[in-house]
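Morning!

This is the sequence you dropped in the shared folder:
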Amino acid sequence: MSTPHVIALLLAVSVALHIGSAAAFIAWRAGTSPPASVLVGGSAVVSVFAVYLSGVSAYR
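The structure's back. Tokens below.
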């Protein structure tokens, strides 16, 4: 794996974690219990990262 590939992967992880954190915070502020909001945030992270990886695999 070259350096640009590693940097792109780290960027994707960072973006996915930011989106997941925002989703968990919004769910928590909307009145969801903390464990449920963590599940919402985790599913958002997995979804964003899956979309990124499918885009990368389709590009190759």
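Headline: The first helix runs from residue 3 to 29.

More detail when I'm at my desk.
O.
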